Amino acid sequence: MTDFFKRHFVILLIYLLCGALTVAGIYMYLQKRDKGHALSAVDKIRSAGKLRVITNPSIDSYYTYEDRPMGFEYDLVKEFSSWLKVELEVITPGWDNMFSYLDQGKGDMIAAGVPITPERFEKYNFSVPYMTITQRIVHHSLDGSPSTIEDIKGRTFHLSGQGAWQFPLTAIRESGIRLNYVLHNNISQYELISMVHDRSIKYTIASSNVAFLSRRYYPDISVGISVGEKQSMAWAIRKNDTSLLMEMNRFLISAYENGLLERIKHKYYHRIENIDIFDIKQFNKSLETRFPEYKKLIQQESTKYHFDWRLITAMIYQESHFDPNATSRTNVRGLMQVTTKTAREMGITNRRKPSQSIKAGIKYLDKMYKKFDQIQDEYQRMIFALASYNVGYGHVLDAMKIAKEKGYNHTHWQGLKKTLPLLARPGYYKKTKYGYARGWEPVQYVDRILTYFDILRHQEAKVTLQQ
Q: How many helices and strands in the chain, by DSSP H and E?
């Protein structure tokens, strides 16, 4: 043993010295960190265990539905908090106070559909953009709207105090075109659009995503010309938070590449520029005239299967427009357009009787829903169930197989939307198990149901936003 220590004394001494230096280095690092010099913005967030996000209650950003937080910005930033492996804390100081809260350190970032403007870019860091918009004039459909920028002259616009209209309108005024505007503090673009709908004001200017989305809820508004160039929407942070900026950009690039960003966009913004205004008005009218007769039945049956009754309502309208005597070209009948085979399978005898049709239809939808237990996302799973209700489970399986072969995500609707229409082409359906299908129909079917559902969901969210 003595010989061992003699032979290895120098080596042992070196190990001991290295260990001592390592301990000393760690101690110095901790001392430095405790003085606030070593912790980056991301380190602080992870140390606190939460990401504090400043946002604004709005139909395009953040709201609650059935006591659950929702909204495009909320869903995206929730995914970012999971990326950081921390909890999410939402702070809503009002639109006009968001940047002052950020300046004062009362939040880590702003996620509220904020367009990048030259003035903001000088003061804050912005993530890579995740959406491109323009500022659009919004007016009531019964009122005329400027057809060119020169036509703006002499008109009065009601504007949100911190809106992104400032830069393009300043440029217009500097070009010599006189216009008037009234500023409204802590009033969102969406609220001003509702005032246009009620004709309490004549014109406002809003981001194009908000303007087009609002037509679902206020079909009497019209979206007019753009003012200014395209703008990029991004998350905002303080200038010195470079580590947070890098992490945000890594996340957003990953969300773009893996399809997450597109899925969230589809959830909230699908078909916003291509809606049928007449159809929306008919839907709203039916909600007042025909729907009340069946509301209680729909709610009762939906509850049995833990389905959202508003989604079932949207589905029934798409199936029959709340007409119990509706009959399709394929002889399916009743409120939920149940086939003879399905009626027998679900145990009903009269497809035209509303209570039986609703019972059978929801029970069959539940059957389809349970077939997709491999899909973890409940929203996506329900969409696949709806598509199966319309075109048949077998055809959906065929479309999923094609999506997988083409490298699309076969468990997300964005992939299936691309492959379902292919089932009408001989080059594809001849190679499938279940053959030909009018595959474009379930795509239109699902998109319409989601639009109606969003309108119904908005009615509850609207109450929440007003409180």
A: 20, 11
Same-domain check for residues 291 and 414: yes
Number of domains in the chain: 4
Tens digit of each residue's pLDDT (9 = 90 or more) over 216-251 = 999 999 999 998 889 999 999 999 899 999 999 999
Q: Tell whether the model's pLDDT for residue 265 goes beyond 80.
A: yes
* Separation CA 187–CA 96 (nearest Å): 8
Prediction pTM value: 0.82
62: exposed, middle or buried (C-beta count within 10 Å: 0-12, 13-18, 19+)? buried
CB 51 within 8 A of CB 86: yes
Residue 313 and residue 193 share a domain: no
**140-144, 181-185, 354-358, 366-370: range with lowest mean pLDDT:** 181-185
Whether residue 261 is contained in a domain is answered as: no
> What are 391-409's pLDDT values in tens digits?
999 999 999 999 999 999 9
Close Cβ partners of 104 (under 8 Å, ≥ 6 residues apart) = none
CB 261 within 8 A of CB 252: yes
Q: Is 73 designated active site? A: no
Q: Which domain holds residue 14?
A: 1-38
CATH of residue 108: 3.40.190.10
The one catalytic residue in 73, 319, 345, 378 is 319
**302 and 418 both lie in a single domain:** yes
Predicted local distance difference test score (pLDDT) of residue 144: 83
Q: What Cα–Cα distance (Å) separates residue 177 from each residue in 155, 169, 170, 343?
A: 11, 10, 10, 66
Work out the pLDDT band at 262, boundaries 50, 70, 90.
Answer: very high
Same-domain pairing of 152 and 208: yes
Residue 253 is assigned to a structural domain of this protein: no
415 and 345 together in one domain: yes
Beta strand segments in 96-218, E: 109-115, 124-126, 131-140, 156-160, 180-184, 203-207
- Do residues 108 and 90 lie in contact, with contact meaning Cβ atoms separated by under 8 Å? no
- Residues 356, 217, single domain; the answer is no
Question: Which of 125, 144, 170 represents a domain boundary (last residue)?
Answer: 125
